[in-house]
From TrEMBL:
It comes from Micromonospora deserti. This is Nucleotidyltransferase. Keywords: Transferase. InterPro entries: RlaP. Residues 226-265 are annotated as: Disordered. PANTHER family: NUCLEOTIDYLTRANSFERASE. Pfam families: RlaP. GO terms for molecular function: transferase activity. Residues 242-253 have a biased composition (Low complexity).
Length: 265
């Protein structure tokens, strides 16, 4: 596994962490290119606990990011102090982050994940539950508000805000909803849907898959076995193509012509 980019995400990155908060990490790695041709292709994701870490292979990560997945997307927009690994390919990935965005997928992904958080809140009841359940309910409410805020901003400006400018508002919102003010969460989600509908986004209708493909192919070329990698680089420098199997080389010696033999007397 060759780690290309990794960092701390979640509440620490948002500025919402408190005592006992988990530290979540996400990363992108490149599997050896030759491994994809064996009987057992490499895993697309590696998830561990203690520490809580999720790492996606480069191709899967791109599919998630192109689909607007909020957690995958935020890795490319982290504050500098949240990155733990930044290779050359990681820097290039950060450099193409805007090319991976599209208006419909940002809208659907952020509203979709916010809706999931709301359904979790609805299942909690009216706020008369244990202290531990209340903490988890407040966390779901903060996530809902954060997803709505980040999604609206990204959709309207093309820029993803990771470290929240006013984290105290999100904490207070979480406590109010955990205390039984579920209607406040319902209203926030409904207003967000209306806001998306009336906002003209600078983002394109589709992401730039060609740019993503070029990055991935460069990653694959760089993770070939050394001999193949050198040959690939030489061919790329020459712009040459290998001869097709069975073709006649232009340098081959031409066959001798057949001449008439003298008739014996």
């Amino acid at each position: 596994m060759h780690l290309l980019l990794s960092g701390i995400v979640g509440s620490v990155a948002y500025g919402l962490s408190g005592p006992g908060s988990d530290i979540d990490r996400i990363g992108v790695f490149a599997a050896p290119t030759a491994a994809f041709h064996g009987l057992h292709p490499p895993r697309e994701s590696v998830v561990t606990t203690n520490p809580d870490t999720t790492r996606h292979e480069a191709a899967k990560y791109l599919r998630l990011a192109l689909g607007g997945n909020p957690t995958a997307t935020e890795l490319m927009w982290l504050p500098d102090d949240c990155y733990e690994t930044r290779t050359e390919f990681g820097e290039r990935l950060i450099g193409i982050r805007s090319a991976l965005l599209s208006a419909p997928r940002v809208r659907d992904a952020y509203l979709g994940y916010a809706g999931q958080q709301f359904r979790k809140l609805e299942s909690r009841g009216n706020g008369t539950f244990s202290a531990d359940t209340r903490r988890r309910t407040a966390k779901h409410a903060r996530h809902l508000a954060r997803l709505v805020h980040q999604g609206r901003l990204l959709y309207a400006t093309g820029v993803l805000e990771i470290r929240l400018a006013h984290p105290e508002w999100f904490r207070a919102f979480g406590e109010r909803v955990a205390g039984g003010e579920l209607d406040e969460a319902r209203t926030l989600l409904a207003e967000a849907e209306q806001d998306f509908d009336r906002t003209r986004s600078p983002l394109p209708d589709r992401p730039d898959e060609a740019t993503a493909e070029r990055w991935l192919l460069d990653v694959r070329a760089a993770h070939l076995p050394p001999a193949l990698s050198r040959e690939s680089q030489r061919r790329g420098a020459r712009g040459a193509r290998p001869p097709e199997t069975g073709s006649i080389s232009s340098t081959s010696t031409p066959p001798k012509p057949i001449t008439d033999q003298p008739t014996p007397s």
